[in-house]
């Protein structure tokens, strides 16, 4: 149940029988030859596919995140951590006001992960609330599936190259890119990051077959759905 395809009457009626919802978190940042909206596209689609059989509302993905290290790449938008925390708190407070009590956050961007503490505090501050923070791509079963396909996988590599994040009529490099020096990367300015990683891929092949990617996606969807169905 996508919020964008629902009206308020339907959500009010839903809240009479259930209090679960899904909030995807994304980002607008460089992903080499893929869409700048990869993280938002993936988090919202993951949330939708996981929640659809359960008829649980899925809110639109928050399209901006914390990504200062990619500000050397045009099109990237980064929020201050304090801003992002405030936005997330306001969103969660709004959901609580209307009767949502169990919120699954499906996060698609590693830079957003530090706000897990905000979710924990929000749970403590609101009676009966529960908030789960789910980095879908590095959840145990999904990450194991990634490694089983190819242990060389990272940001903007094949593991984020799905039919729905791929841009039409763009050629992909055919070689496997060596891993970036992560220690050096962590100590670099945005312009230094751009010089270090070049096209934006951290390391790995740029594309795998759609058969492989669909199998990986199905593992991730099932793992995400388990969080909605399980004990809260």
UniProtKB/TrEMBL annotation:
Cofactor(s), names only, from the UniProt record: Zn(2+)
InterPro entries reported in the protein's UniProt record: Creatininase-like_sf, Creatininase/forma_Hydrolase
Superkingdom of this protein's organism: Bacteria
Keywords from the named record: Hydrolase, Metal-binding, Zinc
Family: Belongs to the creatininase superfamily.
PANTHER family: 2-AMINO-5-FORMYLAMINO-6-RIBOSYLAMINOPYRIMIDIN-4(3H)-ONE 5'-MONOPHOSPHATE DEFORMYLASE (PTHR35005:SF1), 3-DEHYDRO-SCYLLO-INOSOSE HYDROLASE (PTHR35005)
The protein's name: Creatininase family protein
């Amino acid at each position: 149940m996508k919020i964008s395809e629902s009206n308020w009457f339907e959500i009010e009626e839903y809240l009479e029988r259930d209090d679960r919802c899904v909030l995807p978190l994304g980002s607008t940042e460089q992903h080499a030859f893929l869409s700048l909206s990869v993280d938002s596209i993936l988090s919202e689609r993951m949330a939708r596919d996981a929640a659809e059989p359960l008829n649980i509302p899925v809110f639109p993905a928050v399209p901006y995140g914390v990504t200062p290290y990619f500000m050397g790449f045009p099109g990237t938008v980064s929020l201050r951590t304090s801003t992002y925390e405030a936005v997330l708190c306001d969103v969660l407070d709004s959901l609580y006001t209307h009767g949502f009590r169990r919120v699954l956050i499906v996060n698609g961007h590693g830079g957003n992960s530090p706000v897990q503490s905000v979710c924990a505090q929000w749970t403590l501050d609101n009676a009966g609330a529960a908030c789960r923070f789910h980095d879908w791509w590095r959840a145990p079963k999904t990450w194991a599936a990634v490694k089983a396909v190819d242990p060389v996988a990272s940001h903007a590599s094949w593991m984020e190259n799905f039919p729905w994040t791929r841009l039409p009529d763009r050629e992909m490099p055919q070689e496997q890119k060596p891993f970036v020096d992560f220690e050096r990367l962590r100590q670099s300015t945005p312009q230094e990051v751009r010089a270090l990683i070049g096209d934006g891929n951290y390391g790995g092949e740029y594309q795998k077959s759609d058969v492989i990617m669909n199998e990986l996606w199905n593992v991730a969807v099932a793992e995400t759905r388990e969080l909605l169905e399980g004990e809260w």
